[in-house]
Amino acid sequence: MKTPRVYVDEQLADVSEITLNKDASKYIVRVLRRRDGDPLDLFNGDGFNYHSILKLSTTSVAIAAIQTREINTSESPLKINLVQSLAKGSKLDLVIQKATELGVTQISPVVSERSVLQLDKARVDRKIHHWQGVAVSAATQCQRSVVPIVKPPVSLIDWIDHTDQPASCLLLHPTADKTLKEIELTSNKCSVMVGPEGGFTNEEINYAKARGVTTFQCGPRILRTETAGFTAIAILQSLYGDF
């Protein structure tokens, strides 16, 4: 039987026991129907798996008794920051989920000129909390013990102006001259910039290029915003990462 994994937003390194919250307890006891003494793995984003034993104090409260910790070797040597333009509907949920599975370390939502989705200040905090939850769920499923950080949305121009590694920023553009095979990364860190449904404007592309950002394309077909990032990440992982 597969050992279930549970994300815990607490420090675990020097802890012998931890009481799982209501949702986690319900999932383990009522949904998975695990019993006292069953194995359970915890993680909190620090890169380790915490192998534990389940202790049931009541029918609704689960306690994990931590036995050992083991470093999780699933992380890629390539640290990718996906700079994704806001997309309508649940597309960004899908992007965050799949980018986490593909091994990115950070997701930076940006507002570009053609972004359909616009967020007011009242919705930003709720969205960030929701998106981070999507990343946690995806990390749980794909056996990662590092959860990508989902940053607060900023304008594309602000993001470009404040990045400290413009030479490692790659902007996906369907008519770019180079493919990723023709671009040599100078470090193990890079950012992949993906436009909204209508693509980046010429002004945005020229602004990015003037500040050292490199444009690239992923082939002869026009990809949707929710597909483009996955494709670029998979290629980069094949060239420089762990694929």
Model description:
By secondary structure, this protein is α/β, with parallel strands linked by helices. The protein folds into two domains: 5-71, Hypothetical PUA domain-like, domain 1 (Ribosomal Protein L25, Chain P, Beta Barrel); 79-240, SPOUT methyltransferase, trefoil knot domain (Alpha/beta knot, 3-Layer(aba) Sandwich). 30% of the residues lie in helices and 25% in strands. It has six helices and twelve strands. The strands form two sheets. Strands 6, 7, 8, 9, 10, 11 and 12 form a seven-stranded parallel β-sheet that branches. The protein has a five-stranded mixed β-sheet with strand order 1-3-4-5-2. α3 links the parallel β7 and β8 (149-150). α2 runs parallel beside α3 and α2 packs parallel to α6. The longest helix is centred in the middle third of the chain and has 21 residues, at 121-141. It is elongated, with a radius of gyration of 20 Å. The mean pLDDT is 93.
Topology:
Blueprint: E1 5-7, E2 17-19, H1 22-31, E3 39-43, E4 48-56, E5 62-71, E6 79-85, H2 91-101, E7 106-111, H3 121-141, E8 149-150, E9 154-155, H4 156-162, E10 169-172, E11 189-194, H5 202-210, E12 214-216, H6 225-240
Parallel strand pairs: 1-3, 6-7, 6-11, 7-8, 7-9, 10-11, 10-12
Antiparallel strand pairs: 2-5, 3-4, 4-5
Helix pairs in contact: 2-3, 2-6
* Quaternary structure annotation: single chain
Give the overall shape, derived from the CA principal axes.
elongated
Can you identify the CATH superfamily of the largest domain? SPOUT methyltransferase, trefoil knot domain
Helix-strand topology string: EEHEEEEHEHEEHEEHEH
